[in-house]
Amino acid sequence: MVLSEFPYPMTVTMVQLTSITVYSGPFFNLWGVRKHTDMPWNYFLKIILPLAFGKFFASVTSHISIWKVPVSYAHTVKATMPLFTVILSRIILKEKQTSWVYMSLIPIISGVAIATVTELSFNMVGLICALISTMGFSLQNIFSKKVLKDTGIHHLRLLHVLGKWALIMFLPIWFYVDFSSVIQHNAMKNVDYRVIALLFADGVLNWLQNIIAFSVLSIVPSLTYAVASASKRIFVIAVSLFILGNPVTWVNVFGMTLAVLGVLCYNRAKHHSKQQVALPYTNSEWIKYNPLHNAEKFYQNGKPYPNGHLSNGYNHSSNLLFNNNSIHPGANKLLFV
Fold first, then answer.
1. Does residue 200 lie within any of the structural domains?
2. Contact call for residues 67 and 2 (beta carbons, < 8 A)
3. Same-domain status, 161 and 307
4. Domain span at residue 92?
5. Residues 6+ apart with CB under 8 A from 179
6. CA 240 – CA 251 distance, rounded (Å)
7. Bridge partners of 315?
8. Number of domains the chain contains
9. What secondary structure, in 3-state letters, does 159-210 show?
């Protein structure tokens, strides 16, 4: 709704990053969120700054895709997040998946392909931006999970750090690309309170959505988060079709449905693969224990050694290793083998 009234995706991204930066500090302190310690400078340059760059770049491309194509189609394309997560996890983390997981990606790809071919308002820029943003969010999920594990930083503090640095890197670009056009727009010149209210609501809602997203990401694997994100897209697609009235055909709806079913199949296959526990041995390979016959004679009173002495000269009655810390003949004893 914001982009239909105010067609500046970069400015919408700037508003969202500003909301994360401004609201997170005081509210997280009020909620008692644990403050983070300083990170090593090398780690900050190698991981945090690229993450912050990826955050604003993925957000910009996401808004461009929604601006260029209907919301339902954009989010159908973004349902390919499990596909990107599987590929990137294989390349970056060397994670392998089961054949069922790979097969579950087929209906996702097929559904998106059908939706693309039958999309009435197709736009190549919108498709490319949707794919780029999906890949960017997949990378962000993988590396955010890594940062949470490596540094122990609270997930909400990580959101604040990424939002702040993303805003710092993005502001010069926004000033160069959008600033002059925005201040000349009728909504800004005439102080259109409807547009201002939409921008404010978009910033607050995006901040809350990021809080939920980072909270979920901190307690579930990246692949599970990808499935949860895809489930969110199901709701967005349905709402956009009924409320915004995006024009669709039955074949187009079939493609969207197939992509959604593919996500559900992927979720099932991923859950099934985690339930498979590989045991090192079968029953037939277990080593059977056979007790020693007449083992008592090896330790009771030092027998069968003469005079209660061992061959190395030690008196057996005082040897605590054999008599289990007892010199009484009737006490329980351990035999170490």
1. yes
2. no
3. no
4. 2-275
5. none
6. 17
7. 309
8. 2
9. HHHHHHHHHHHHHHHHHHHHHHHHHCCHHHHCCCHHHHHHHHHHHHHHHHHH
CA–CA dist 147, 42 (Å, integer): 13
230 with 304, same domain: the answer is no
Could you give the maximum distance between any two Cα atoms of the chain, in Å? 111
Contacts of 39 (CB under 8 A, 6+ apart): 48, 151, 153
- The tokens describing 39, both together, are 């990170």
Contact call for residues 144 and 214 (beta carbons, < 8 A): yes
Does 263 lie in the same domain as 129?
yes
Average pLDDT, the chain: 79
CB 71 within 8 A of CB 244: yes
Tell me: do 246 and 315 sit in the same domain.
no
Asked if 33 contacts 230 with a C-beta cutoff of 8 angstroms, the reply is: no
Task: Tell whether the model's pLDDT for residue 201 goes beyond 70.
Answer: yes
Token pair in block for residue 335: 């035999």
Q: Do 75 and 238 contact (CB within 8 A), yes or no?
A: no
Tokens of 273: 């693969």
Residues paired with residue 93 on neighbouring β-strands, in sequence order: none
Are 21 and 133 in a shared domain? yes
Q: What is the pLDDT of residues 273-295, one digit of tens each?
A: 766 644 444 444 444 545 555 54
**Which stretches of 175-311 are DSSP H helices?**
180-183, 186-189, 193-219, 222-239, 250-275
Residue 25 domain flag? yes
Is the residue at 283 inside a domain? no
- Residue 254 shares a structural domain with residue 306: no
Tally of CA atoms within 13 A in the half-sphere of 308 that contains its CB: 10
Q: Are residues 229 and 317 in the same domain?
A: no
Within this chain, do residues 212 and 312 fall inside the same structural domain, yes or no? no
With vertex at residue 165, the alpha carbon angle to CA 160 and CA 169, rounded to the nearest 5 degrees, is 150
Burial of residue 53 (CB within 10 Å: 0-12, 13-18, 19+) is middle
The residues facing 309 across adjacent strands are 315
Please state the separation of Cα 202 from the chain's center in Å: 23
pLDDT of residue 327: 45
Predicted local confidence at residue 15, as pLDDT? 94
